[in-house]
Every structure is written in C-alpha cells, then in structure tokens.
Amino acid sequence: MNKNQKIAIAAVCIILLTAILGATYLGGIMEQLELGEFNEDSQIYQGYPRTITDSGGRNVTIYKPVKRIITLTSDGAEGVRTLGAVDNIVGVTEMINKDGKEYF
Prior knowledge:
Layout: H1 3-34, E1 50-53, E2 59-62, E3 69-71, H2 74-82, E4 89-92, H3 94-98, H4 100-103
C-alpha cells in the first residue's frame, strides 16, 4: 500500500467514526426528549395536547392552554367572549377596538 492509499483509508475511517458517533449522540438526545428528561422545564396540562381544525382545514395541535390571544375579526372576538377567555386577549384590530363594548 502506498502513502496515498493509507491516507484515504484513514480519512474514510475518521468520517465513518464521526458519522456513527454523531448518530448515536443525536439518537440519545431524541430519546431523552421523548422520555421527558427535561422535566424541570415542562409541565403537564390536563386535557392536552388538543388537536383542532382551523378555518383553512389544517389540523393544529395545541400542547398547553392558550394564554395570549390576538383576534382579527369580530367573529373571532365573539367566539373568544363566548368561551369566557376575554382576559387572555392581548391584541385586536382597530375596528374591534372601536366597537369593543359590543364584544367585551
């Protein structure tokens, strides 16, 4: 074997070793996340996750209670009022702001 072949084989071995170790490391991280390794940063919410279908027909998963709501339409404001979540609204459009008495 000449010097170039030895260098090529060594380079391939290093690349393979790096790939294997990297995959093992990432696999370990994913397992920790799935098992809830970071419990100090997570809370369990009863009844969650919830999956809803939005007005565009897309499924959206909500993992914890909604704390901040921005409503862009009067229909949305009416829905939020009906659900009793008016205190969670942090933003509305100018039109709703003018007629806010009607919704809130």
